[in-house]
Specification:
The protein has helices at residues 48-60, 77-81, 95-100, 109-131, 139-164, 187-204, 220-233, 237-252, 284-287, 291-295, 314-317, 396-411, 413-427, 444-458, 465-471, 475-485, 503-506, 510-516; strands spanning 167-168, 184-185, 276-280, 312-313, 330-331, 334-335, 349-351, 365-367, 370-373, 391-395. The chain is mainly alpha-helical. The protein has 18 helices and ten strands. Among the domains are: 48-285 and 492-517, Serine Threonine Protein Phosphatase 5, Tetratricopeptide repeat (Alpha Horseshoe); 290-299 and 307-391, no CATH class. The chain starts with 47 loop residues before the first helix and ends in a 5-residue tail after the last helix. Residues 315-482 form the RagB/SusD domain. It holds the Pfam family SusD-like_3. InterPro entries: SusD-like_N, SusD_RagB_dom, TPR-like_helical_dom_sf. It is found in: Cell outer membrane.
């Protein structure tokens, strides 16, 4: 076994150690774990420091590939959650384009790697849970560690179910050589595990951690949010209300606070926003990622040398009202940094085209095909290739919009309006019901549409769009309207609410292979 020795550190602002212990499990095969530790299954669990290192490894596997992170929550997840909707549009050939125009197949790399990395988190969590009793430690400390591991396992299972529905349900460590053809568990069975894990985390995790213990740990509020969202996915709004209301109670007691300026939630000077419930944190010198590279604008003076690999579609951007300040939180209508040619010091002007415009007004102008959000490049502190941007997994603005959805389902649009308008008002957008241009939604159906729109405007490229559209019954309608606006065929059907299982897995799993025939465009 190849071993690269690392220093074991407490979990701090940066989760920098990706530890893969011997005996890890992929749902079928193909995990091919890399080792960044001198721990093995023979010596890994003998001290509390070993347990701390293993826990750090679970956190780190949310943003794997040390030193050059771009997988799972470091970027790849946006391709399966936001690109396969009206939100994302790719100018890169290959798999990104196939996702953004709904021509993907089961061999798409984003299916493969997201699946593998989700199960990597689960595998690492299972290993810690199975071995923690080997170490002597205080019960409260042990339960806090278990609470974090179980929350992270539940988060990954939630992401798997959002994408694929029934998946292999693994709660113990297994030898990969003995793990072929694990049966697919129903969504209800997986949700039962998610609920158990979240309930344990709620009972054992603090509302806040002491600063010296780190800033990136899961908390009671994170587990409450995940459990509430699980019930929302199954349209059990009565139970969802129980848990979402508890998060809002934490807010009322000052644990969370909605930042008065939506832009400041994304400032690199504001590493941990007051409204962040759970996030993945990076530091350039330790575990920096390619986040701004992927999400930042191309050929831009303000944020130079970025790729705009994950671009927001013009069709989605145009849905914002001109009076909504969030519409300006994108890069467009700017002069590029690179010189156009050897005879000038000026760059091309990147212009937002009018609808239907296909020809630039001058040869010094390029029409934008998509736009880059400022969320992952706003007020950059460090402009390095591997940056220190925070990925917000759950934040209080999302929870407030969840509350609007819950109240609409249980009590109607009047009950939801307060929460919907709180998010709009914070952004500086016109509130519903306060002007003729924005009348208050008068029916439950009209409020659903307003919530769909608002969740998109507020949570753009935060891994929420596809689950939101599916849950709220708008996936086919909105996705097909987007395709038609792009001049493409409206191919999205109800069967596409679940992705095909990754080809490498389906080849070894008859149940997956049979399901894939029904899930392809």
């Amino acid at each position: 076994m190849t071993r690269i020795k690392t220093t074991i550190k407490e979990l701090t602002l940066s989760m920098l150690v990706f530890i893969t212990l011997g005996g890890t499990f992929s749902a079928c095969t193909k995990l091919e774990p890399e080792l960044y530790s001198d721990l093995t299954t023979k010596n890994a669990y003998s001290t509390e420091s070993d347990i701390d290192a293993a826990l750090t490894g679970i956190y780190a596997s949310l943003s794997p590939y040390p030193g050059d992170a771009y997988l799972y929550y470091a970027g790849y997840l946006v391709m399966t959650t936001d690109y396969t909707t009206d939100m994302g549009f790719s100018t890169a050939a290959g798999d990104p384009t196939k996702l953004s125009n709904f021509t993907y197949d089961d061999n798409n790399r984003y299916f493969k790697f997201n699946w593998q990395n989700m199960y990597q988190v689960i595998s690492n969590a299972n290993m810690l849970i199975a071995n923690i009793d080997n170490v002597q430690m205080a019960d409260d400390r042990k339960n806090q560690i278990l609470g974090q591991a179980r929350f992270l396992r539940a988060l990954s299972y939630s992401d798997l179910v959002d994408a694929w529905g029934p998946v292999p349900l693994i709660v113990e460590t297994k030898n990969p050589a003995e793990s072929y053809n694990e049966p697919l568990a129903s969504v209800e069975r997986v949700d039962s595990l998610i609920a158990e894990d979240c309930q344990f985390a709620i009972a054992n995790l603090p509302e806040k951690w002491a600063a010296e213990l780190g800033l990136g740990r899961a908390t009671k509020g994170a587990a409450l949010t995940l459990l509430g969202k699980m019930y929302m996915r199954s349209h059990d709004y009565v139970n969802a209300k129980v848990y979402i209301d508890q998060v809002l109670e934490l807010r009322a007691r000052g644990v969370y606070k909605l930042n008065p300026d939506f832009k400041n939630e994304w400032s690199d000077n504001n590493k941990v926003d007051m409204g962040m419930i759970f996030g993945v944190l990076h530091e350039p010198a330790l575990n920096g990622g390619e986040i701004t590279n992927h999400f930042g604008p191309s050929d831009n003076r303000e944020v130079p040398d970025r790729w705009q690999y994950y671009g927001v579609s013009l069709q989605f951007w145009r849905k914002y009202a001109d009076s909504d300040p969030r519409k300006q939180f994108f890069y467009y209508n700017y002069e590029g940094r690179a010189e156009r040619d050897a005879s000038t010091t000026h760059g091309f002007y990147y212009m937002m085209p009018d609808e239907g415009q296909t020809k630039p007004p001058a040869d010094t102008v390029k029409l934008l095909q998509n736009v880059a959000t400022k969320k992952y490049s706003y007020e950059m502190v460090n402009n390095s290739y591997l940056d220190g941007r925070t990925i917000q997994v759950f934040r209080i603005a999302d929870v407030i919009l969840c509350k609007a959805e819950i109240e609409n389902e249980l009590g109607g649009p009047a009950q939801a309006l307060l929460y919907l308008n709180e998010i709009r008002g914070r952004a500086g957008a016109p509130k519903y019901g306060e002007s003729a241009d924005f009348p208050a939604p008068a029916s439950k159906e009209a409020m659903v549409q307003a919530i769909v729109d608002e969740r998109g405007f507020e949570l753009v490229f935060e891994y929420k769009r596809r689950p939101d559209l599916i849950r709220l019954g708008k996936y086919e309608e909105i996705s097909n309207a987007y395709l038609q606006a792009c001049g493409l065929q409206p191919v999205v059907t109800e069967k596409m609410r679940l992705f095909p299982y990754p080809l490498d897995e389906a080849r070894l799993h008859p149940e997956m292979a049979a399901a894939n025939a029904q899930r392809l465009p």
